[in-house]
Amino acid sequence: MRIIGGKWTGSILWHLKDKPVRFNDLARQLSGASKKVIADRLKEMENNQLIARTVISTRPVAVSYEITDFGRTALEFLEKLKEWVENQID
Fold first, then answer.
1. φ and ψ at 31, to 5 degrees?
2. Model pTM greater than 0.90?
3. What gap in Å lies between CA 61 and CA 74, rounded to an integer?
4. Which of 13, 20, 51, 79 is a good FRET partner for 43, with 20 to 30 A between their CA atoms?
């Protein structure tokens, strides 16, 4: 839980599940989080090897993030958690 339990971690993984996403696009999708919080969480997730960071260009700096194979295994747990919550609501 320490690795995937942080606020915004699940949401970030969910947004990266289909394709790499650039930082500003991710920030727009996570409108409730500040860019600093998103950057901090992305750094943690990269250190935990859930995501990979790729520099697209250096002028201006543009980066994209994509989920790693290890991060994909976390999606399985998040999906089960989602199903569990949905079953409790029904």
1. -60, -20
2. no
3. 29
4. 79
